[in-house]
Amino acid sequence: MVGKNCFAIASDRRLGVQLQTIATDFQRISKIHDRLFLGLSGLATDAQNLRLVFRHKLYQLREERDMKPETFANLVSAILYEKRFGPYFYQPVIAGLGDEDKPFICTMDSIGAK
Question: What are the BP-aspect GO terms (predicted)?
């Protein structure tokens, strides 16, 4: 959800296999930095294998600044597209505040198409 100079992202906390609930405290929303969040939708193990928080920290070390939401969306899209012939079963939702507090929200399919 996007508003004037703000955004909201929400999800459930269920982790399940087929019709069986494994846990009810699974964290589906990751804080990348203070102005950027990533929502998980899809297979939990694929979401953990992407290591997107780790990739952002590498960017921070190299560039000495936080990644913009648009740049992060392009990174996620490229990572998903690399595996297009054996795709991750994962559809990310990226929400953040860009320059001048302009809200940004983006979602992708499993091969990285925005």
Answer: proteolysis involved in protein catabolic process
